[in-house]
From TrEMBL:
Residues of the Aldehyde dehydrogenase domain: 11-459
Native organism taxonomy: Bacteria, Pseudomonadati, Pseudomonadota, Gammaproteobacteria, Pseudomonadales
InterPro entries: Ald_DH/histidinol_DH (IPR016161), Ald_DH_C (IPR016163), Ald_DH_CS_CYS (IPR016160), Ald_DH_N (IPR016162), Aldehyde_DH_dom (IPR015590), ALDH_GabD1-like (IPR044148), GABD/Sad-like (IPR047110)
Keywords: NADP, Oxidoreductase
Protein name: Aldehyde dehydrogenase family protein
CDD domains listed in its UniProt record: ALDH_SSADH1_GabD1
Family (UniProt): Belongs to the aldehyde dehydrogenase family.
Organism: Pseudomonas lactis
Amino acid sequence: MNNAISHQTHALSINPANGETVRSYPYESAEQLNAALSRSTDAFRTWRRTPVSQRAEYLLALAAALREQAEDMAQMITLEMGKPIAQARAEIEKCAQLSEWYAAHGPAMLAPEPTLVDNGSARIEYRPLGPILAVMPWNFPVWQVLRGAVPTLLAGNTYVLKHAPNVMGSAYLIQQALRKAGFAEGVFEVINVTQDGVSTAIADPRIAAVTLTGSVRAGIAIGSQAGAALKKCVLELGGSDPFIVLNDADLDAAVQAAVIGRFQNSGQVCAAAKRLIIEAGVVEAFTAKFLEASRALVMGEPTSTATYIGPMARFDLRDELHGQVQATLEEGATLLLGGHKVAGAGNYYEPTVLADVTDQMTSFKQELFGPVASIITARDAEHAVALANDSEFGLTASIFTRDAAKARAIADQLETGGVFVNAFSVSDPRVAFGGVKKSGFGRELSHFGVREFCNAQTVWLDRK
């Protein structure tokens, strides 16, 4: 089954609930790639001159188009990567709200920005760069694309999407929604190419910049190629996010957030509560409550609205996850729940809870991309911070405490792109999203996401 993820000449979409092939998508030729880049370049010449207020109107139309075909898109997500249908529907609605938010607030982010030049004759103008190549993952097949594409398009760039091979159906439905919304051909292009095709696109002078959401290994490869071509890139990579619970926390709220933060999307989230770092005074009580809530999660057919945990998206990733769990147990961790592949044709993995995890174990040091939670005991708040920062990743973190001053003090010390107090991590258009260390660099969302692929051009009139 591992060999069914990709093929030399085709991208395969495989239903992880039963292992059956959904559809085969032939990879495009060099000529087809060249034509797509030409369409994107030609469209940029017109799109960049379209007033930003009119681009915002297109985003409102996109929100309507997304809602119009929401059920088709949600069903495709569930079919291709196994996301429970209720979560898939929520993903599409979130994308529609994203489009509306940027339509309302984005134009102001692109307005000329005054400077401190005395006579007010200098300003910063935000100019689009050109066609942006986006290499996107499968875990949020629509949200991951549009959270980058919407602000990028609003800024006047065009967008060339190379989606993950197993969710090409979702890629084409996104393109269909943009066409329904009135976006011209070439403004949003989908390319179905191999890794060699991606390399060709990055090196092509028509591509102005590159963005990737994916693994550290992919980030190193894409970042190296972008650097060799002297092109800006934004990398949103892996995470092993700490979820800190202190002795004074509201345990019920912490447990509820930890369960969602760890098990939503069957645990296949970059910014997820992967390392549960619990202060010693409450670790026993937290563990008991977390176990009870985890046992209550419904795992099953992803098309059922009762299901919270569906199959993992790819069979090879389930094998990798199981190997990480087994290694952690061999290193001395305690298995409290799950820990097994579910027998049958589907790609299911039991919701799993590991306790007595230390900083020397596999599940602490590596990212576990699936429904596995690791509970780590911290001696005190200072030790919790040290454990949280003892990672090659730095995407997001959560802190649970009733002491607001303590939360702010801890947040100041955490080496992450985002900190969430008494809440699990989210991506929201109102705030910047991205990481540090091996979680990548650059930012999506908020005004940062609008300006990432802009030329901040100084315009100084009548300089004396």
